[in-house]
Amino acid sequence: MISPKMSIPKTPISLEEIADMNRKRHEVEGGVIPSDDDVGPLELEAIAAVHELAHEVQDISVSEMLPRTSDLIFVNVKTQEGSPYTLELTMKGWRIASSHTDCMNGDYTKISLHTKYYRNARELLKFISPDHATRFNECVAQKLSKLAEVAVQ
Prior knowledge:
This protein is an alpha+beta fold and 153 residues long. It is built from five helices and four strands; from the N terminus they run ααββββααα. It has a four-stranded antiparallel beta sheet. A hairpin with a 5-residue loop joins strand 2 (73-78) and strand 3. The longest helix is centred in the C-terminal third of the chain and has 21 residues, at 132-152. Mean pLDDT is 83; it is low at 1-11.
């Protein structure tokens, strides 16, 4: 039997929780990812971002062309406004790598755009896509409407 005083870590269930765990891990371990992990923490975070944000953008996927390691993953996104971006995910967080798809090289004239790190993908999306919040609210309203229909039956 487990003592009530023992703390059992809960399974992360949202993109934000996974991101928070990774950022804390980065602060504690300096971004070092143990090689004994079956599925790395960044992989889990990238999958969560693609899954959770798919309905809030035109397109989102992990890049098949750019390097992908346990320390670095690139995600392509096309915002509701139709703007393409390549996002870089490291244990430090998310940043805009480029204003083009499958590209690691940012525009050197917009250095501040490419050097700011965001805690999670949703936070970054709020910055690059003003229509994101509207689409997010529409998705929530649709799901609530479906739940209401099921509850009436």
